[in-house]
Amino acid sequence: MSNKTLTYLVFIVVVLGGGPLIGANNVPGEWYQSLAKPSFNPPNWVFAPVWSILYVIIGVVGARTWLAYRGTMAMRLWFAQLILNFAWSPLFFGWRDPSSALIVILGLLVAVIGFMVASWRQDRTASLLFVPYLAWVAFATALNTAIVMLN
């Protein structure tokens, strides 16, 4: 196995494994079910497949950036978005604090956009691969905002 293949594998496993591990320790449960939610709230079954696909994309983009642009702002922003992404569930579901989670997801949105801007010149493919992630995080931000406002 080449170093390049190993790098991709490590990034995908860390991201794809980390997200569900954090999610499994911060299950929505009865508290979340009791919250008032907006009409655009998707059914619960949607979240796992969407996040699984996005986590693979995030891992691929991280590996691409690590291999070619390790010391750049884009790489720092990639790590920042991952930390913010992984921090959201414990805040929202674990601490049951949608307001703090909203602050984190706004930071995540900024980090994703920042990554896309920072990587645009050096690796347009990586930047464009984050488009679905940006769309989902923007949607999740709107959902988080609505939950804060309704509760």
Automatic annotation (TrEMBL):
Transmembrane segments: 48-69, 76-95, 101-118, 130-150
Keyword Cell inner membrane carried by entry: no
Keyword terms, alphabetized: Membrane, Transmembrane, Transmembrane helix
CDD domains, A to Z: TSPO_MBR
UniProt-annotated location(s): Membrane
This protein's record includes keyword Transmembrane: yes
A Pfam family reported for this protein in Swiss-Prot or TrEMBL: TspO_MBR
Gene3D superfamilies membership: TspO/MBR protein
Membrane topology: Multi-pass membrane protein
Protein name: Tryptophan-rich sensory protein
Lineage: Bacteria, Pseudomonadati, Pseudomonadota, Alphaproteobacteria, Hyphomicrobiales
